[in-house]
């Protein structure tokens, strides 16, 4: 059997505080610091605790050359090699390791900057319920939430005294200004009103459609409403359609050149809301949006040009932000409402749409639909653009 170490692994010396009754009885604070070495790799979701021998071995193992296991036995104890194999940090060329080898090969072939790859893999959630977590937080603290956070940073960063500031003219009214003022993140939906197919088509077109395709730079690129690093447009739109006339509830992928929906599977109306809730990590206030859209970055599209590049990951996240704002405005233009959230269960979404996290990574979920006529969940509308200001 031949082996090599996984392609990307970072080691974190982590300290955890643990409550120890004995320490409290001995006159201490009751909190004892426990230190451990954790391996964070780009091909495994779990954080892996290491002992000192495993830690040392990770620095000795070959990373690129497949090496006979016997040849390593002189340098590294058999038990350590066996436990690293078991933990998935040492990869073997035998059929039983095919699945984990494929995950490692994917990292090797995708030109990720190692730090970005680890950051991406280990910042994904599964099964998180943010509302339940907030309740738990409130229960655990007897002090008010804001007091616990301490003083916030000021709203504005001031770098010159007021007298030295050069006052500028305000922009006048315009259709764009009106649209910007109407944009308010929606947390109250009218699930009794179906969205017209034309509204769905319009918002998708304005936000995601290719207005032109060109191969002038030597590769195929498209012109979209938003800028994109290298003109590469790595962001894909995956839809959960819940409540649209003439479009069956279900999962879809948007094709930006054909301006068409690619069906990926139907979802029973009864299951749609549960799926939506799972995607947005239990945020009830986004559950009834008529359409939810997963924004997922196709990393290899960007990394093809920006190989092992320190800015590639950042550029892909920025892409998603541009698309989201455009979607808000496209929805607002039609009298609809929109939202975005980064508090999403990426791993659940990957399962729903069959996405590999290192090839097509979930960054955020946005959505739109008809706003309801009652405020059950707060929205930020100090201008009274959507909701009348009381009194
Ligand atoms: C990256 C990002 C993540 C967000 N995540 C959440 C979220 O998890 N839950 C939520 O209710 N709103 C979320 N929002 C919406 C913000 O709370 C909202 O933009 C902010 O309160 C200002 O309100 P406005 O959009 O109406 O101006 C998010 C916005 C952005 C840009």
Strand order of the largest sheet: 11-10-9-12-14-13
Instruction: Kindly name the structural category.
Output: alpha+beta
**Quick one: biggest sheet?**
6 strands, antiparallel
Question: What integer is the average pLDDT?
Answer: 95
Walk me through the structure.
By secondary structure, the chain is of the alpha+beta class. The chain folds into two domains: 2-109, no CATH class; 178-369, NADH Oxidase (3-Layer(aba) Sandwich). Helix content is 33%, strand content 21%. A six-stranded antiparallel beta sheet has the order 11-10-9-12-14-13, sandwiched between helices. A three-stranded antiparallel beta sheet has the order 5-1-6. A hairpin with a 6-residue loop joins strand 7 (212-214) and strand 8 (221-223). Helix 10 runs antiparallel to helix 13. The longest helix has 22 residues, at 312-333. The relative contact order is 0.13. It binds flavin mononucleotide (FMN). Residues 184-185, 187, 283, 340-343, 380 line the site of flavin mononucleotide.
